[in-house]
Amino acid sequence: MNTATRPELSIAAFESGSIDAEAFDHESHVYVAWLYLERYSVSEAIARFAAALKRLTESLGQVDKYHETITWFFMLLLAERRSLAGACDWLKFRRCNEDVCASPDAILKQYYSRNLLASVQARQSFMLPDKLGHCIEI
């Protein structure tokens, strides 16, 4: 685990809500998710990350920002990419997976329609991708 890469971001800081929410961009989300997947099984990483993210959005008064399908999708995608990459530190993983760290919309639109992602059901429960030709291995 290479926590020295982004020392202000850690699982402990994320779970306690002591991170700088203004600076917590998409790449920060991906990095913290990567940390969870370094430490926990996929199912436990998803459960812990999702719970902490929900707490964070609640504490900021922005519960509408949490999206279950997007959270689970990125966790599963990261787990798959980590499995394919083998053991590597964050910097190498990021270099090999720039598409995951870039704007989330680019990847999401490959797998999901706007209608599905905009649905209440997708916000509250994980939904499988609805675009043909893509699947996620678990």
Summed up, the helix count is 9
Residues in β-strands, percent: under 5%
As an assembly, this protein is single chain
Number of domains: 1
Number of strands: 0
Can you walk through the features of this model?
The chain is mainly α and 138 residues long. The chain has one domain. Helix content is 62%, strand content 0%.
Labels describing this entry:
138 residues; 9 helices; globular; 62% helix; single chain; mainly alpha
Q: What are the SSEs and their pairings?
A:
Layout: H1 11-16, H2 26-39, H3 42-59, H4 68-85, H5 90-96, H6 98-101, H7 104-111, H8 114-118, H9 120-124
Helix pairs in contact: 2-3, 2-4, 3-4
Question: Quick recap of the structure?
Answer:
By secondary structure, this protein is an all-alpha fold. The protein is built from 9 helices and no strands.
